[in-house]
Amino acid sequence: MKRYLITGASRGIGRAIAENLAGADVELLLHGRDTVALAEVCAAVKDRCAHVIRLIHDLAVPSGVSDLIDQVGKNPLELLVNNAGIAIVKPFCEITPIEWEQTVGVNITAPFMLMQRFAPHMPPGSSIVNILSIAAKTGFANWGAYCMSKFALEGFSQCVREELRDPKIRVINVYPAATDTDIWTQIEGKWPRHKMISPGDVANAVGYAISQPANVALENISISNLTGNL
Ligand SMILES: NC(=O)c1ccc[n+]([C@@H]2O[C@H](COP(=O)([O-])OP(=O)(O)OC[C@H]3O[C@@H](n4cnc5c(N)ncnc54)[C@H](OP(=O)(O)O)[C@@H]3O)[C@@H](O)[C@H]2O)c1
């Protein structure tokens, strides 16, 4: 049986990835904070996979990440999906120290701690998927905290990728453009949902990359609506 850990699986892109990767030989370890939403996801996939485990932890603080690591336990993972993320969108002069720290915590420190803990025990052929963003490559007005975090994770994961070639672990970076999820509901402004891709589109790309033979690295995946960026 293969063990797959997906952070931020309670909704949006993480949920779609969980639904895409559910399989008879897979134990899904699904993380979130919203117990009701996560229970719904677990119910949706449980008949299609060997086992589902619910992990409820706040990744904004290192103690929450450590608790998640403890709950995952010692058995190795075949897949780690660093998906949980937050988007604070406002002029850079208005970003508070707490918002900055939370962004660093969820979007950078949590993936760092999870990769550092789990990668050394992953068997050859395993994969790490980092859900980055087009904001990992381009700056946008008012997206300073978010872009900072995605650029940082991008740099870190490029280095980890090189270190993990010898143990034959793939590091797959995914760069979605605007995707129609709840993340947009708390961002001020009118966002044209019809110009966004769906969470399922991102999940299909992840599923395809994971399904490649172990010696094939589909390492960088940019995915957007054909109409272009918002
Ligand atoms: N939507 C887009 O346009 C887009 C584009 C490019 C990249 N991305 C990236 O895709 C990833 C998923 O985003 P999404 O659009 O699916 O967002 P979403 O619908 O808002 O889901 C975010 C997920 O992250 C979890 N999360 C947030 N803060 C957390 C915290 N402090 N501790 C633990 N978990 C936390 C949420 O858990 P709970 O809800 O249970 O708290 C939820 O499962 C993020 O990394 C985001 O940056 C999104």
The total count of strands amounts to 7
Main sheet makeup: 7 strands, parallel
Q: Quote the average pLDDT.
A: 98
CATH superfamily: NAD(P)-binding Rossmann-like Domain
Q: CATH fold name, please?
A: Rossmann fold
By CATH reckoning, the class would read Alpha Beta
Strand content: 15-25%
The H-and-E topology, N to C, reads as: EHEHEHEHEHEHE
Distance between the termini: 41 Å
Secondary structural class: alpha/beta
Unreliable spans are none
Shape: globular
Number of DSSP helical runs: 6
Strand order within the widest sheet? 3-2-1-4-5-6-7
Q: How many individual domains?
A: 1
Q: Supply the CATH architecture.
A: 3-Layer(aba) Sandwich
Structure description:
The chain is of the alpha/beta class and 230 residues long. It has one domain: NAD(P)-binding Rossmann-like Domain (Rossmann fold), CATH 3.40.50.720. The chain has helices spanning 12-21, 35-45, 62-72, 97-118, 144-163, 199-210; strands spanning 2-6, 26-32, 51-56, 79-82, 127-131, 170-176, 220-223. The chain has a seven-stranded parallel β-sheet, sandwiched between helices. β4 (79-82), α4 and β5 form a beta-alpha-beta unit. The model has no long low-confidence stretch (mean pLDDT 98). The protein binds NADP nicotinamide-adenine-dinucleotide phosphate. NADP nicotinamide-adenine-dinucleotide phosphate binds next to α1.
What are its keywords?
230 residues, alpha/beta, Rossmann fold, seven-stranded parallel beta sheet, binds NADP nicotinamide-adenine-dinucleotide phosphate
Strand-helix topology:
Layout: E1 2-6, H1 12-21, E2 26-32, H2 35-45, E3 51-56, H3 62-72, E4 79-82, H4 97-118, E5 127-131, H5 144-163, E6 170-176, H6 199-210, E7 220-223
Parallel strand pairs: 1-2, 1-4, 2-3, 4-5, 5-6, 6-7
Helix pairs in contact: 1-6, 3-4, 4-5
This protein binds NADP nicotinamide-adenine-dinucleotide phosphate.
